[in-house]
Automatic annotation (TrEMBL):
InterPro entries: ATPase_NBD, Type_II_PanK. The lineage of its organism: Eukaryota, Fungi, Dikarya, Ascomycota, Pezizomycotina. One of its GO terms (molecular function) is ATP binding. Keywords: ATP-binding, Coenzyme A biosynthesis, Nucleotide-binding. One of its GO terms (biological process) is coenzyme A biosynthetic process. One of its GO terms (cellular component) is nucleus. Pfam families: Fumble. This is Pantothenate kinase.
Amino acid sequence: MSPAPQQQNIDATGKPQRLSAATETLHNTIAHPGNVYINVQGAYIADDDQPKTPLSIHSDDYESGGRDIRLPNHTDVVSHIAVDIGGSLAKVVYFSRDPTSQELGGRLNFLKFETDRIEECIEFMRELKLHYQTINGSKPADLTVMATGGGAFKYYDRIRQALEVEVLREDEMECLIIGLDFFITEIPCEVFTYSPEDPMQFVEARPDIYPYLLVNIGSGVSMVKVSGPRQYERIGGTSLGGGTLWGLLSLLTGARNFEDMLRLADKGDNTSVDMLVGDIYGTDYGKIGLKSTTIASSFGKVYKRKREAEREAEDHGNLLGHHHHSAPAVSVDDEAAAAAADNEHAARSFKPEDVSKSLLYAVSNNIGQIAYLHAEKHNLKRIYFGGSFIGGHRQTMNTLAYAIKFWSKGEKQAYFLRHEGYLGAVGAFLKRQPRNWGRRNSVEGVGAVRPVFGGAVPAGRVSNGGGVGERVVG
């Protein structure tokens, strides 16, 4: 695969002057941002600690997006960075190489910022531009930002003014598909299935990955049918997504960010909030395949317990009333204030942890069932779940996987990714690659990682993309 034709330099005699290979690559990369052919041969998820960013930005401003992806055979200059700016999060993907290190090639780095703090994200990209200039010896304007998501339009002028570089806006849906295809076909130990008995079952790349359904869960949810490379159709979605969960939990629990909400959910017991099949029937409803632990009504116990508390308060008030011959008139405002106080008291009677878990299940179950219905309608057996809503969270993945398995009677499979929140950003980063450029066929023997939730530990050398203790699905 050869690069695009290069512009020739002319020497003092008027004859073409041949550039060095490095200079030629640099000129081509700058002239055609995003067109550098990323060499993915031997790519793997890094098993070392997240390297410190060379920039001065405070770590409180961003969150690492998990392990970097090592590209040991890519040595060319990369003159662009990618950003996917959604309604809740802004995700940044960039290539880095330390010229003072003995490490071969480079790596893809993943960071995310809250969109409400977009200025910190822009400042990070500005400092990254200066760092690229120092490392590559290029001009400040040589860097290009490949932007996608709604924020690529909303913050377009702000990014251009702050960085003084070209900003290329890429189609959001197409970037999602390009990013997912890259992870499915090029990165070993990236895609996996989930079950409580076998939490991470890695999936080998298949030659026939199409068709499939992508369920991208961000602030809202989009469901995209993918029939081939860059052949896609948005077939549905729902407004009840990550933004719904974050918004309601911020009101109900006082949690300040999504990570706090997930930590609360981990400790919660939804059975104190949700009405289960067992609460109604006293046992399983085996005739229709419902276990006693199946949720019959999300938040179904809240109203009942609230009414019980109100009756107790009324009984207490009636008891006190016997000691008073008359009561003062109650205004509408007083009634509203009393109702608000009752609601506040009822909210306090439920633990934030239990409320968090109940709402997480409610949103996840809804998404899982809608995903199944779309997959069934379009005869799609493979369903990939992406988006920052998942975040490697066990309960979320278990709920989605169980919903697909339950409704399809085991005929459809849910798949998850270790970099699920970066599909759009990676797609924007790779958007201008030639089709079918990948070189996945040499990952054997490359150091990989045994992923665990909340981190990763080295698994030594691996063969065929698998690690010690993991099973690889063909």
